[in-house]
Specification:
heterodimer, A: 4-stranded antiparallel sheet, 4 helices, B: 70% helix, 0% strand
């Protein structure tokens, strides 16, 4: 689905805000991000570390970012809620998962790698 | 989640959950025929389409119990068909929206007064060059301003009424999505009835303009006391059906249900996307049962189920898929009852108070996020504020409790965040 680039940029900034906040809150020390502008969208490549005791939460995060279905009507009504709040929770990560057009998340031993795509 | 279980869930959400709203429409239709098994059913239904709908108007008083249920069944069926036709998945927000549509068809919405608003939402999508499916829920929720359309239908000259009501509905439907997207930032997702908040402001604007040109709104109060036993049976059947569906889908133990309770409920808590569908349906039944149980407790004081009260139960059950669960709704309801007992000079069984006690649960995320005591405070504040908000929009916003809940958030959330310590890293 085509969206305008301006809106995709705004949404991506919410995604980035939410993800780095969540990873730091889980005890991560370092988050590397690479943002690429592609022909039809924005791609975010992210790598972050996490302590062993946060593994369950990171796996939950991976589930949220790769939902079984995406509901665009839900996103349209609520996307402004993602990011920018001090109480990062399941709800906001779930919303981020809904906002993305594609997501691939690999949870490793002590780091997580994400390849996230948001179409224009 | 394994790939196989993910696919199973996707299939369920995409294809099979539509049966729930269809079954609800079927139950409403069945009880409509039981309540009015003659031609008065259709005459009453037409009477409902052509009558006023502002707060608090019980269509069961206007057209009969069966006619009101028929209206709810038709509204629900058509809205479900629209969602299905757009190939949208049936997730928590779909259930919240469709149950609200069915519920509020028992408190003022009907096919005639929602149609122009839906047209306005469709025109907005065309204007934005985006598919209507993106705005369909906001538009459906935006039909809470349908009483304005009915008001023009009833009060204008015959030659003017149809163009005026279509224009009014289109303007409402066109503006609601933009306003609702903005208001969600104001309350930060702590008011589950976001469009009610947005519609309150829009209703305030439109009502003020109309008052400026000499239109006078009166707060109405029609309240049916017919069909109590039948409605009790119907609500019990609906809630039992949701419970049974949840059990069939795998929620057979406390352990299976418990994950729902860990959510604060703050938007966007779409339980169908975050947890097992079976647990969501059981939660819908339990949240509806909280509202139903509260009303049954008040029966000795003379409370009888009618259109508006069934509306509240259906709304609560619907949002059991999108943010509400017993743990976060009970403190808010307790706060509202407490405020009523201490402050408000109207009986606990007054129509507005009953509605407020049940619909204040739109503030449930405050209890879920900040603790039960803040939930009690939110409910308390809600009960006091909601008594005064109806006048602002002339009773034209059916989600008056959503408007009041938004105002409570504006007042309370900054205070809570100012007092509470920053979350630990």
């Amino acid at each position: 689905m085509k969206r305008n680039a301006h809106m995709a940029r705004r949404r991506m900034s919410h995604v980035i805000d939410e993800l780095y906040t969540a990873l730091f809150r889980l005890g991560g020390k370092e988050v590397d991000m690479e943002l690429r502008r592609e022909e039809a969208g924005l791609r975010l490549l992210l790598r972050g570390d996490f302590p062993g005791e946060s593994r369950r939460q990171v796996e939950r995060m991976a589930e949220m970012l790769q939902p079984a279905v995406r509901n665009q009507a839900l996103v349209e009504a609520y996307w402004e809620l993602a990011g920018g709040d001090q109480y990062t929770s399941d709800s906001e990560l779930s919303l981020v998962g809904q906002m993305l057009d594609e997501a691939k998340v690999d949870v490793g031993e002590d780091e997580v790698r994400m390849d996230l795509y948001l179409a224009f | 989640m394994t790939e196989e279980s993910g696919k199973k869930r996707a299939d369920l959400i995409q294809d099979r959950l539509i049966l729930i709203p269809l079954a609800l429409a079927g139950v409403l239709l069945l009880f409509a025929v039981i309540a009015q098994p003659d031609r008065s059913l259709f005459a009453g239904w037409w009477q409902i389409q052509m009558s006023e709908a502002g707060l608090i108007t019980d269509p069961m008083a206007a057209g009969g119990v069966g006619a009101a249920l028929l209206n709810a069944a038709l509204v629900l069926f058509l809205c479900t068909a629209v969602v299905w036709g757009m190939r949208l998945p049936f997730t928590g927000v779909s259930f919240a929206c469709l149950f609200m549509m069915a519920g509020f068809a028992l408190l003022g919405k009907n096919l005639v007064n929602i149609a122009p608003i839906v047209l306005g939402g469709w025109l907005y999508a065309r204007y934005r060059r985006e598919p209507f499916s993106r705005y369909v829920y906001m538009t459906f929720f935006g039909t809470c301003l349908a009483p304005m359309v009915s008001f023009l239908l009833v009060h204008l000259e015959p030659g003017l009424r149809w163009p005026a009501m279509v224009a009014c509905g289109v303007v409402i439907g066109f503006l609601i999505p933009a306003i609702a997207r903005y208001t969600v930032r104001v309350h930060q997702g702590y008011n589950l009835y976001n469009v009610g908040f947005a519609a309150g402001f829009l209703g305030l604007g439109v009502a003020s303009v109309l008052k400026g040109v000499g239109v006078e709104f009166e707060i109405r109060n029609t309240w049916s006391r017919e069909g109590h036993v039948l409605l009790c049976v119907m609500v019990a059947v609906i809630l039992a059906g949701l419970l049974a569906a949840g059990i069939c889908l795998g929620c057979r133990s406390w352990r299976a249900y418990r994950p729902i309770l860990r959510h604060s409920g703050r938007a966007v808590a779409d339980f169908f996307l975050m947890d097992a569908p079976g647990a969501c349906l059981v939660n819908m039944a339990l949240v509806g049962a909280v509202g139903f149980g509260y009303l049954l407790m008040l029966m000795p004081l003379g409370v009888r189920l009618n259109g508006p009260l069934v509306c509240c139960i259906l709304s609560m059950a619907g949002f059991g898929a999108f943010g509400k669960h017993p743990k976060n709704v009970l403190p808010v309801m307790a706060g509202a009852v407490l405020a009523k007992l201490l402050l408000v000079e109207v009986p606990l069984t007054a129509p507005g108070v009953l509605l407020a006690c049940l619909l204040c649960t739109g503030l449930a995320p405050i209890a879920g996020q900040f603790g039960w005591y803040w939930g009690v405070a939110a409910g308390f504040l809600h009960m006091t504020i909601v008594q005064n908000t109806g006048l602002l929009h002339g009773g034209m916003n059916l989600y008056n409790n959503g408007f009041a809940a938004g105002l409570v958030c504006v007042l309370l959330i900054p205070i809570i965040e100012g007092i509470k310590p920053e979350p630990k890293e």
